[in-house]
Amino acid sequence: MAMTKVFFSDLKSGRCSSVVEARLLRFWEAKNVKRGGELMWMDLLMVDVNMKKRDLERLEKLIYNSVRQAAEVHRQVRKYVRSIVKTGILMTDICETLEDTVRKLISENGLKAGIAFPTGCSVNWVAAHWTPNSGDNTVLQYDDVMKVDFGTHIDALSHIGVMAEVDRILRPQETFIVSDDMEKIGEIEKMVESLKWNVRMTRSRYGGGVISVQKSWWRPTEVETITSAIASERELV
């Protein structure tokens, strides 16, 4: 008699004559000295998941559509910016026009869709990652070589990734402002408080909110990092 493979998702409550094979891994086993030598371990149950091909294709289609849409916006913005760049144009005008065009074409929506990272507009010997500040009067000269680096995204950013990038590029005492729904604002507020940044303002209206924070000079010391790691390990025991 041929064996038919049965998945956990095929089982229903009640009596059943089917047999499901699963793999059980025990990672380690040790005595907990804090609990009278009681054995402790971690088990991992390996479960086979029966996801139909059409379900996988539907999931992949959603991802691919987001990537294609973001790429198409990127293509259109590149084409438009090339048509307006000319000798004597302010670098700030290039960046602001580019980012405004991205916001319009991609229908900017908080962290769900918009600009993936700050626009880089580097000239000549500056290799990358330079952006003119507000009020900068630098203009593009006839013989300049300019490198423009910008990104678009749809459903591709996480709050942790965004805050890690903000922490990398933002200087101490500079301000960071976010506008999103209150649930996301609450998550961001917890992150910046853990970094010991100064929350300058939070406002909410009709389910949306704005938070303004100022980066501090704080950085965890080696002692603080070790203490935090020990505390986390104790919580697991």
TrEMBL record:
Residue ranges annotated for the Peptidase M24 domain, each copy included: 67-155
Domain of life assignment: Eukaryota
Keyword vocabulary terms for this entry: Aminopeptidase, Glycoprotein, Hydrolase, Membrane, Methyltransferase, Protease, Transferase, Transmembrane, Transmembrane helix
A biological-process GO annotation: proteolysis
Location relative to the cell: Membrane
Annotated Gene Ontology cellular component terms: cytoplasm; membrane
One example GO MF annotation: aminopeptidase activity
Pfam families (alphabetical): Methyltransf_29 (PF03141), Peptidase_M24 (PF00557)
InterPro entries found in the cross-reference section: Creatinase/aminopeptidase-like (IPR036005), Met_Aminopeptidase_Type2 (IPR050247), Pept_M24 (IPR000994), Put_SAM_MeTrfase (IPR004159)
Name by which UniProt lists this protein: Peptidase M24 domain-containing protein
Record organism: Brassica oleracea
